[in-house]
Amino acid sequence: MRTVLLASLRVHTRRYVAAVLAVATAVGFVIATDALASAARSGLNAGVGTPYAAADLVVGESFGLSESDLEATTEAAASVGAATTTIGRAYEQLTSEDGRQLDAEASIGTVAIDAGAADPAFRWQEVVEGRAPTSPDEALVDERAAASRQVSVGDRLTIGSGTDVVTVTVVGVAEPVPYLGAPVYLPWSALQQLPSAYPDAMLVAAGPGGVAEARAAIEAATEAPVSDREAFVDERRTQANDGIDVVSYLVLVFASVAAFAAVLVVANTFTILFAQRSRDLALLRAVGARRRQLLRSVRLEALAIGVLASVVGIVAGALGGLGITAVVRAIAGAERIGAVEWNPAWWVAAFVGGVVVTVVAAWWPTRAVVRISPLAALRPDEPTDVRSRIGRRRLALGLVVAAIGAVPLAIGVAASQVALAIAGSFTTFVGVLVLGPVVVPAVIRLLGRAVGRSGVTSRLAVDNAVRNPRLTAATTASLLVGVTLTVTVLTVMATGRSAMNAEMDAEYPVDLVLTSATEAGSREVVDRVERTPGVDRAVGVPGTSAEAGELGTVGVVAPGSDVLAATRDAGAAFVVGRDEVLVPYDVERGGDVAIPERLTLVGPAGEVDLSTRLVPSRWGGSLVVAPATLDALTPEPEVQAVWALADSGADRDALAGSIGLIGRDAGLGLANQLDRRAWVDVQLDILVGAVVGLLGVAVLIALAGIGNTLGLSVLERGRENALVRALGLTRGQLRRSLGVEGLLLAAAAGLLGTVLGIGYAWAGVRTVVQVAVEDAPLVVPVGQLALVVLAAAVAGLLACVVPARRAGRIAPAEGLVAD
Amino acid sequence: MTHTLPTSPPLRPLPPSAAASARGLTRTYGSGPTAVHAIHEVDLDLPRGRFTAVTGRSGSGKSTLMHCLAGLDRPTAGTVVVGGTTITGLGDDDLTRFRRDHLGFVFQAFNLLPMLTARQNVLLPLELAGRRIDRDVQSRLKHVVEVLGLGDRLDHRPGELSGGQQQRVAIARALVSEPDLVFADEPTGNLDSETAAEVLALLRRGVHELGQTVVMVTHELDAAALADDVVVLADGQVREHLHGPSADVVAAALLGPSVAARDLGRTR
Fold first, then answer.
1. What number of C-beta contacts closer than 8 Å exist between A and B?
2. Gap between the Cα atoms of A355 and A24, Å rounded
3. Which residues of B touch A295 (CB under 8 A)?
4. Which of B115, B120, B190 shows the shortest C-beta gap to A11?
5. Exposure of A389 in the CB half-sphere (CA atoms within 13 A)
6. Which chain B residues are closer than 8 Å to A8 by Cβ?
7. pLDDT of residue A390
8. ipTM
9. Any idea of the CA torsion for A557, A561, A567, A573, to the nearest 10 degrees?
10. Is the pLDDT of residue A98 over 60?
């Protein structure tokens, strides 16, 4: 059979193109992921050790150090002549000299100050412009941050908000780094004044007594863990790598979706090809090829195709990976994305995976080959059996599988067990696939009725699309997978986003706040803010300045009902009792500032003793009291704060700039909540975009499958097409009918996938989101889903262009002659 | 024109005198009231070294008879013995091997695998059997190719050959393994009259010069008349088994038993 096998591979390779492409895409996906992950890893690995390079010992671990640890370590080190510095971090508002808010919550890092020649160079930042800081009121900025926020050497920055601010002068610009990087670096002595600052680790350079002595002294003084630099860096490196590994394994999930789609395409291709070659195969059986010989030969063919596809995939994936890495490096920075380091294990795994996928996908169609009777060679002018009945067995099997899947799905949803729900969803989906030959033609007929029974082209198209239910179902299966997943993801994201928006409305009820603890605003300020383009509404909130014991001078406000109209959640956060004072998160800082249970507020006209209630919302740092309480504090409330609501779609940066200027003129500070909301929105957008993009790979494979099937069935239907052409169908009509057929197939998959996707999204939301957020209603992003179905339909149409042209080109006489 | 060639040495010992025999052969499709009896209780002996034509009107069961005799289909009842082997009881693998080693096939159309050359097509059954192409096989091949006039076409693909040339290649394939029986199913159906005459002549030469036994199913009277013997089927049963008839005799036999009985003698 070797001659037959080789000759057949040579001749039929062209018909395997779609199958090869499908498997190659899935394999290439894996290889490209490895490339990007390894580049990220090598970028990170190079950078992890840098901050700790000058240390002999490192004190600290993942959870940071306490104040007492810091003190004890410093003393112990000093006692043996060792030098120390602290690496820490804070997250604070960053404001420029002219009041421009640069960052609502910037990450602030540390830079070691050279206090004298005796100190080793603990400073690890590379200064590319200006010089390094030498005193606590000097700072370094990161090169990229400096460019994007327009900060240069000599500028003064204000870090923090409210009473705890630090003002520094920028003296130098540092090179960007992948690890422990930050837009601004302050000396620890300055940083530690900020409320959100925390120490990450302490670096120790041994004194004249050596490392062992230093270590002994420190370990005696504190219980914080002390490690060798190497050991510490290794551990941090492992943690960082684990982070990358997690992401790359997640991406592999998408690769397996692509592989699943590829399996369906390959199985479909082989089924059709063997049906077309049944005459050849019957002839072989007639002249004496045993069933086993035939089976082995076609399986070897599948193996050869699998090897070819895997090789193509590896080459394409390697090139693609290098390309994508270069692009990402250009965007994210060469310090973060290093050189690609190939991992041979992944290559082998991808290759084997590709071969296995092809062979497994071909297994079932090859089994059908043995059923070919040698008689089929004798009457070649009989058409290949295009019709197929839907066995009752298949119907039963499909229903049973779907029912079996429904059980863990129901349990998983009810008990919020994600794994069970996923397993159940998968099984029910397989059940739907098995029922495909029943369901898909039904959907197509429905669509066909919508398309209208006008015109012979649409009639032909609908009839052709449903005549072979098994073929139709197989063709649309892979697209169904892609569309269902995409719709599920989009719907879950939309629901999650709306739930999160509701949360954020509660957490940030006001977009922009102008306030000061000491200065009062005025009607004029409110008007100016309201007139600013991009502002929807602005109100002046009545209140007063008051002394609040250990909290110092604070603004106290009592928002009335007119004020609450300018808030996002209709004032739900501002419900306050007569003897209560609400303390917002901006003041309490999640525990950084200790709030007593009772507080005495001393206003210009009187004092009130109130019980404090912590509220997890932010509105610019004023304390909120009931209007009656405010009356007790002052007879003439002033405009203590200006609250503004932004237009949706307003330019955030410009708006913050303008309002900030107004505030500066009036002596008020700006609290910008818009940035925080926007940040969450952006993260969600990125996530959705990434997921849909990754799923898009699977969808592309599926569309290749549809085009392929249509092309092959055009060949199969050659005689019929020639007949209708002879009887009077024009070339254009034939082409259009094929186009409509492709459109119907893709649209059916799109619709069915949308329905299924929404169903699975509902299950997903109930299982996952409702654990975190109560009562999250399902939000169906109708616009996005309509786009998905439309895109699928159009792509189905495009997939037919080539087969349709080929069909049109056959002259009627050619097709009718028995070959 | 005739062409006398030295006979090649036989590759296998001679089988018994009937190339193929059928006893009580029945093939029924379907069941119950809609059952179709394609052939019913057929007894037949096909002599060795003769060119036999099996003919009849459409629906007479001639194709079905051939399928059962050739081991391409399983009869509902009865036995078939070919070349001394009872094939009706064989399993599929054994039956396939039997076809490969003992039978040759020529079909009406689509005889050849389109992706193989003529030479590869001719040697196909031998390759399937895993037989080495040794000196004996090479000389047999050369002999057959000469008789059939294929010498310069062996490396062409079927797509590059005319209908007549394709049939010659098919005949060569049927003959090269020295089968007990060559089955031809409407071998001239797709050919013009000149080419058809050539193909029939080649089949005759296969019988008379290479000592083969050929059984041909045909509905064409002229083709049947070129055969040594003619089996006439009607309604699933053998009506006549004629020796050396002319076309008129065959036509008469096709029309009805009374006509043939009145005009000519018959042999059974």
1. 86
2. 10
3. none
4. B115
5. 3
6. 115
7. 58
8. 0.74
9. 70
10. yes
State whether residue B31 is helix, strand or coil.
coil
The predicted model gives B13-35 an average pLDDT of 80
Please give the helix or strand (H or E) that residue A441 lies within, else none. helix A436-451
One-letter-per-residue 3-state SS of A205-223 = ECCCCCHHHHHHHHHHHCC
3-class DSSP state of A583: strand
- Any A CB within 8 A of B93 CB: yes
Q: How many residues does chain B have?
A: 268
- Cβ–Cβ of A4/B116 closer than 8 Å? yes
- Residues in chain B closer than 8 A to A288 (CB atoms): 96-97, 99-101, 125, 128-129
Q: Is some CB atom of chain A closer than 8 A to the CB atom of B159?
A: no
Closest CA to A539 of A506, A571, A580: A571
Share of chain A above pLDDT 90, in %: 8
Which residues on neighbouring strands pair with residue A94, listed in sequence order?
A: A103, A159
Q: Do B107 and A378 touch (CB under 8 A)?
A: yes
Residues of chain A whose beta carbon is less than 8 angstroms from a beta carbon of chain B are 1-4, 7-8, 10-12, 279-280, 283-293, 373-375, 377-378, 380-381, 818-819
Banded model confidence at residue A311, pLDDT cuts 50, 70, 90? very high
What integer is the mean pLDDT of B149-156?
A: 88
pLDDT band with cut points at 50, 70 and 90 for residue B3: very low
For A645-693, what is each residue's pLDDT tens digit?
888 777 777 787 788 778 777 878 777 777 777 777 777 888 888 888 8
Instruction: Take residue B237 and report the two structure tokens written for it.
Output: 């049963």
Q: Nearest chain B residue to A292 by CA: give it.
A: B93
The rounded percent of chain A whose pLDDT value lies above 70 is 92
Which amino acid, B169? V
Alpha carbon distance, N-terminus to C-terminus of chain B: 33
pLDDT of A514 higher than 80? yes
Neighbours of A343 (CB within 10 A): 15
DSSP track, A346-400: HHHHHHHHHHHHHHHHHHHHHHHHTT--GGGGT-TTSPP-------HHHHHHHHH
The answer to whether the CB atoms of B129 and A11 lie below 8 A apart is no
Closest to A283 (Cβ–Cβ): which among B73, B108, B113? B113
What number of residues does chain A have?
819
Nearest-angstrom CA–CA distance, A304 and A362: 12
Residue A154 · residue A168 · CB < 8 Å: no
How many Å separate Cα B109 from the centre of its chain? Answer: 14
How far B225 CA lies from chain A's nearest CA (Å)?
23
Q: What CA–CA distances, in Å, run from A347 to A360, A387, A431?
A: 20, 43, 34
Which residue has tokens 């100190």? A119
Exposed, middle or buried, A457 (CB in 10 Å: 0-12/13-18/19+)? buried
Inspect the interface and report whether the beta carbons of B72 and A287 lie closer than 8 Å. Answer: no
Q: Nearest chain B residue to A377 by CA: give it.
A: B110
pLDDT of A564 reads 80
Cβ distance B116 to A7 less than 8 Å, yes or no, reads yes
Crossing angle of the two packed helices A801-809 and A674-716, in degrees rounded to 10 = 20
Q: Which residues of A touch B110 (CB under 8 A)?
A: 279, 283, 377, 380, 819
Any A CB within 8 A of B110 CB = yes
d(C-alpha B111, C-alpha B170), whole Å:
6
> What are the tens digits of pLDDT across the range B221-250?
888 888 999 999 988 888 888 888 877 888
Yes or no, beta carbons of A288 and B92 under 8 Å apart: no
pLDDT in tens, A711-730: 777 776 777 777 777 777 77
Does residue B115 sit at the A interface (CB-CB below 8 Å)?
Answer: yes
CB A784 within 8 A of CB A695: no
Q: Are A777 and A426 in contact (CB under 8 A)?
A: no
- Where are the extended beta strands (E) located within A143-232? 156-161, 164-174, 184-186, 198-205, 226-228
